[in-house]
Design a protein that fits this description.
- The protein has 2 domains: 1-30; 32-80, no CATH class.
- The chain has helices spanning 3-29, 47-52, 68-79, and strands spanning 54-57, 63-66.
- With 80 residues, it is mainly α.
């Protein structure tokens, strides 16, 4: 493999990485500011909330944000 081919492959990988990074940044920017189930406010500055809340990102681009209480209630309903 010559240098030109290696550089082209490297540029292609870098472009894919940049595209994925852009998609993640857009998902975070468009993330809901409240719980999708109970409308409780989400504060990105609160580290406890960052650890406790669930963020679900789907392939179609939808983002769901769920608080700790709704997550617990949902898991209880699934085990019944």
């Amino acid at each position: 493999m010559n240098r030109r081919t290696r550089r082209a492959m490297s540029k292609g990988k870098l472009k894919k990485l940049n595209d994925v990074t852009t998609q993640v940044e857009n998902a975070i920017a468009n993330m809901p500011k409240k719980c999708t189930k109970c409308d409780k406010d989400f504060k990105m500055s609160d580290k406890d909330q960052l650890d406790d809340w669930n963020i679900e990102v789907y392939l179609d681009g939808t983002v769901k944000l769920t608080c700790l209480m709704c997550t617990k209630n949902n898991s209880k309903e699934q085990t019944k």
